[in-house]
Amino acid sequence: MTTLVRSASLTHFAQVAAACGLDARALVAEAGLPARCLDEPDLKVPARGVGMLLELAALRAREPAFALRMVESRRLSNLGPLALLLRDEPTLRDALELLARHIHVHNEALTVHVEQAGGLVVIREHLAAEGATSTRQATELAIGVTFRVLGLFLGAGWQARRVCFEHRGPAIVTVHRRLFGPVVEFGHDFNGIVCDAAALDAPNPAADPVMARYTRQLIQDPGHTRSMAAQVRELVVLLLPRGHCSVEAVAQHLGVDRRTVARRLAAEATTFTALVDDLRSELLARYLADGARPLGEVAALLGFSAPSAFSRWHRQRFGRPARQGRPPR
Question: Is the confidence at residue 288, as pLDDT, over 90?
Fold first, then answer.
């Protein structure tokens, strides 16, 4: 099944491309996307094609911050129906938790998790790779949009504690620091934003609870149900780096038993093991393409308890030892 994203994700793509001396519509055609994706924000287009377009534009423009330049003028309204929901939540924490639950309305490839650790809140984001070796631009776009949403709620004086990216930083980080401030860092074990919990709990004086309930009914279309495979993938992304990824743990998070998970996955022509293996392969390709971590560290991030377990899995999956490089595409 093709993972889709609203073409509103390409807001300001044409302007940034023109500023870099590129033909936006020619790039869109080269990436296999419909030309009208630059004009119709509610058009659903393949997430893989959007990711390819952003990487292609950044490469041709020799601008590693291409996607972030698209973010700088973003408004809450670019999120479409989601913006209506977020605007009327009583606090920013409520808005973020709602964003995590309904982000698929805007981008089916993106997973958002909001966690609290002491006085800090960690907003983790993950993009499904779908065979792409790099999601650098799409990841920076997603994190940048979330950062802009936070700033729109909290005001220009707000500052995150840390903005984290898994990939290595570019040689010049002027745009990154202009958008995020001095707290942007690279080479982390997750993509996301760390901020003070207290800031998220301030009341939203513009919230309208009546409109919030009405909008939520519109968003929660009873005819749209998320597949079990999509829900399992989201949890696997969260659990793998912690070493707690099992069908039992996933079932517990979903509030069902493991047999229910297995039965519903079988109805969707897949299994828990197949989903985990596919996701590990996607993540491995991404880590190897980035080249910032030793293989032992990558193995741990993929949820393997020991390098030997990773080596066995790699040989079974790809037919050769892990030390020989990246898996075949």
Answer: no
The model's pLDDT over 137-186, given as tens digits with 9 standing for 90+, comes to 999 999 999 999 888 888 877 899 999 999 999 999 999 999 999 999 99
Residue 128, classed as helix, strand or coil, is coil
**37-48 in b/e burial notation, b at 16+ Cβ within 10 A?**
bbeebebebbbb
Q: Which residues pair with 162 in a beta bridge?
A: 194
Distance CA 301, CA 292 (A): 13
The pLDDT value recorded for residue 328 is: 43
Tokens representing 152 are 């729109």
- C-alpha span between 69 and 60 (Å, rounded): 15
Distance between CA 57 and CA 274 in Å, rounded?
33
The phi and psi torsions of 123 (rounded to 5 degrees) equal -105, 105
How far, in Å, CA of 220 to CA of 28, rounded? 31
- What domains can be seen in the chain, in order of their start residue? 4-200 (3.90.1520), 228-324 (1.10.10.60)
**pTM for the complete prediction?**
0.77
Residue 223's pLDDT is what? 44
Count of alpha carbons within 13 angstroms of residue 189, beta-carbon side: 14
Alpha carbon distance 52, 58 (integer Å):
10
Q: By C-alpha distance, which of 227, 4, 192 is closest to 105?
A: 4
Of 228, 222, 77, nearest in space to 149 by CA: 77
How many residues can be counted in the chain?
A: 329
The conformational region for residue 21 under phi > 0 = left, psi -120 to 50 = alpha, else beta, is left
pLDDT of residue 160: 95
Per DSSP, the three-state class of 117 is strand
Tokens of 213: 């309930």
Q: What does the alpha-carbon distance between residue 265 and residue 281 come to, in Å, rounded to a whole number?
A: 19
Q: Quick one: pLDDT at residue 321?
A: 85
**CA atoms of 293 and 187, how far apart (whole Å):** 8
Q: What spatial distance separates the first Cα and last Cα of the chain, rounded to whole Å?
A: 18
From CA 107, how far away is CA 92, in angstroms rounded?
A: 20
